Task: inverse folding
């Protein structure tokens, strides 16, 4: 019973994380690309300041609950899918901390009125990394969902 409750919690958290990542990658970023340079920089700085709170608030509990789930549901059906979901979650964390977070740290300190000369190059790199990052989060959610279906099925 406890394994099922934790699996539901993991599915909710992984779904929130995947949804947030999907919207940022495929909704927010393309919208930013349509703005003037000044508006783009201004909006990106504002988003980074907000998302640096929101994303960890979802990411950290998702990782913690994934670890707990692996421990309590080790003998439950769907283990391979749970492990694969955890691996995808680790990939998401690595893409975040090694890829987009260092860029976001720079963006956080940009002067909106005088952005760095290479701001477009940094944004382009962020976009490429974010496709992998968001894909890892979405894949993690799908894999945890399959594991849950097997576990309760």
Result:
């Amino acid at each position: 019973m406890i394994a099922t409750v934790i699996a539901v919690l993991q599915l909710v958290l992984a779904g929130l994380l995947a949804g947030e990542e999907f919207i940022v990658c495929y909704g927010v970023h393309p919208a930013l690309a349509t703005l003037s340079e000044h508006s783009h920089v201004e909006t990106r700085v504002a988003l980074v300041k907000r998302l640096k709170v929101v994303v960890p608030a979802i990411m950290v509990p998702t990782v913690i609950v994934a670890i707990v789930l692996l421990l309590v549901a080790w003998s439950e059906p769907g283990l391979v899918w749970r492990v694969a979901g955890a691996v995808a979650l680790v990939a998401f964390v690595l893409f975040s901390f090694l890829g987009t977070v260092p860029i976001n740290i720079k963006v956080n300190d940009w002067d909106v009125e005088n952005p760095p000369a290479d701001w477009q190059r940094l944004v382009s790199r962020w976009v490429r990394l974010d496709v992998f990052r968001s894909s890892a989060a979405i894949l993690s959610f799908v894999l945890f969902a399959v594991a849950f279906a097997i576990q309760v099925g």
The chain is about 85% helix and 0% strand. The helical segments are 2-32, 37-72, 79-108, 119-152. The first helix runs from residue 2 to 32. The mean pLDDT is 96.
